[in-house]
Model the fold of this input.
Amino acid sequence: MAKVIDGKAVAASVVEQVTAASAALEAETGVRPGLAVVIVGDDPASHVYVSSKSRMAKQCGFNSVQHTLPAETTQDELEALVASLNADASIHGILVQLPLPGHFDSDAVIQSILPEKDVDGLHVVNAGKLMTGDLEGGLISCTPAGAMLFVRQTHGADLSGLNAVVIGRSNLFGKPMSALLLAANATVTTAHSRTGDLAGVCRNADILVAAVGRPQMVKADWVKPGATVIDVGINRIDAPERGEGKTRLVGDVAFDECAEVASTITPVPGGVGPMTIAMLMANTVTAAMRANGLKPPSF
Ligand SMILES: Nc1nc(=O)c2c([nH]1)NC[C@@H]1CN(c3ccc(C(=O)N[C@@H](CCC(=O)O)C(=O)O)cc3)C=[N+]21
Done:
């Protein structure tokens, strides 16, 4: 049976470091890190995530502000809000919760955020810094940054000689994850829905990262014996065994069977999810310290 990574515990230790850095910033400059979270529309799942982000921000000692806009908000109105947050010196991090309702040009909204306040790491400037190996100068997308912390805890900082396979190629996760693994000297394959013999490709992986959005798709015979398996999927499926109409969260990995083959594996829930929020806090304190001429710790 594989070692199961406790994402909540690792996230708690990151949050502890963030809280200390935030207190040090405030003691030295009188400035509290400011995080603005913008949510448009009334998707209930999004509201759950946003409230846990606000709660965690307060726990870190941040000034946390939430802007809740109606679903009918226009592109111009949303970009005007971002512009006012860009100009607000008390705000160091801006997160626009995705997905936005269908009538928005999400990319235009994201690119309107100042790169130094883009705590999601989605601005082309931040994506470009990551792709060109400048890991210290920009802000890195929270979920891959969190997944990478698990990888470092398991394998150390140098992945020389190890094969890593990332299933998924989104700008939010797959591409930055592949870039981080490559920067750590892994030999990286970015697999996706059009990959041939996906199972065979995955069986080569010493580090297998699944971000496909298909419940329990990765099976035991896709996993190299002794591999590290990181599950980035969050899928809600029916759970009639829990009672009529009940659901539960599962990842993209068939956990029980893969845990028999892997040496280390992350659970869902309690794996990458809590780390995403912790790394958002880390990016916010990083942005606030840089804005005030201090060198942030490395997380
Ligand atoms: N601009 C933007 N940035 C994001 O980072 C972003 C976003 N939009 N939109 C939605 C997704 C999703 N996301 C999650 C964060 C934490 C958990 C999390 O903590 N999950 C818990 C379970 C939570 C539950 O029980 O529902 C866990 O995995 O243990 C999940 C999902 C951030 N996202």
The chain has a mean pLDDT of 97.
